[in-house]
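User: Can you write out an input/output pair for a complex, sequences first and structure second?

Assistant: Here is one pair. Inputs:
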Amino acid sequence: MTGKLWIVGLGPGAADLQAPRATAALAAATDLVGYGTYLDRVPPHAGQARHPSDNREELARAHHALSLAAAGRCTALVSSGDAGVFAMASAVWEAVENGDAQWRRLDIEVVPGISAMFAAAARIGAPLGHDFCAISLSDNLKPWDLVAKRLNAAASAGFVVALYNPLSRARPWQLGAAFVLLRSLLPGSTHVAFATAVSCPDERIDITTLEQADPARADMRTLVLIGSMATRRIEGPDSSPWLYSPRWCAA
Amino acid sequence: MTGKLWIVGLGPGAADLQAPRATAALAAATDLVGYGTYLDRVPPHAGQARHPSDNREELARAHHALSLAAAGRCTALVSSGDAGVFAMASAVWEAVENGDAQWRRLDIEVVPGISAMFAAAARIGAPLGHDFCAISLSDNLKPWDLVAKRLNAAASAGFVVALYNPLSRARPWQLGAAFVLLRSLLPGSTHVAFATAVSCPDERIDITTLEQADPARADMRTLVLIGSMATRRIEGPDSSPWLYSPRWCAA
């Protein structure tokens, strides 16, 4: 068991938002494992084996990475953003818990990254400047009733909400249903931001309101931020607004 | 108005967890503004002016940084972790909204960073692998009733909870009160982690349970993570456990 497994967050997309520790791990690895689109962001190193896989195969990918490390390879398993946020780190420990007993003795290191939610927030202003939560809208892995319960709890208690996995071909209605639910809890004037492909060349940010928010604006690369009732809008230069959530909250 | 204001997150502490974009902004700035302890983490550059300030003076510090930028200086305002998370970015827009009308035309850029919560999670395993929220326990800026309401909502709806600002000399009782409240909502066996000075030489991680959690373990540099009922513990090598929250949740 001389292998190693790094679980590496690449950050949101731009090379200069990737931590040097991640860059070093990716250069030192003998093997890279990950969703092909993410692996394409890692520059090639001589003698390094690459194992791209399809999306939505998280557990199989975790098994593969653990098997390589157990066989003595120095393996980097890559995620976009931060690997601990709706990404590969959790799948790895699920595989460890239910897999080969030897895997518990492996040298596993998570290299944190700049998450999509904080990269998006930075482009929008400071919408996450007060208490906030993150909810994945994917109901592949949990029942929709639970998503709805959490949206209800978060909005009712005044959290700003970051929605991950808002929409995909296989999950076309969830974001619309979330907006319908949130409109029953929050004023129509509540600020909403769509942040797509943050820090990438095709980045697109749109700031709107809950009343006007169109679920069709989102895609798989979009993070949706729902302000709290305290979140405020300031008109910035060139008519691009900023959103921020004040640090304080009145009684 | 040719100045510039970068609001820069330095990451949790280790130099190799600071984004290259942050490093570049800090090198390009003519002026650095920030809490002295954070400024000390920035290597000196010739000809650069440094404006350290005391802690807890966020709004005055934001005014200072905006004034420098408005005077044509290229100013970097530094925060630890991510500047948008219970840090300086929100204070800047609060100052913009209520300050000199010209400040709205300034070139302001937030450079995101690796937040304390994700750096802590990476050291612990994948405790934030499922829906989660972040709550500041400081009641300087909001009433305790609201903190309690949010703890209640988060724990009842099955969020993992990251507690920022758990304890300070001026706020000695809040974390204890939070534990008492959470014990009325969650089993005593719920996993709890204390993560202090993550990625720094004096880093200290302790994993315990809600029943056993001692508020006195926390200090100003500690992040406290409260698992959900789904969060699991795996014994790792050298008897250091991992915590992870599974991606899925049963109905």
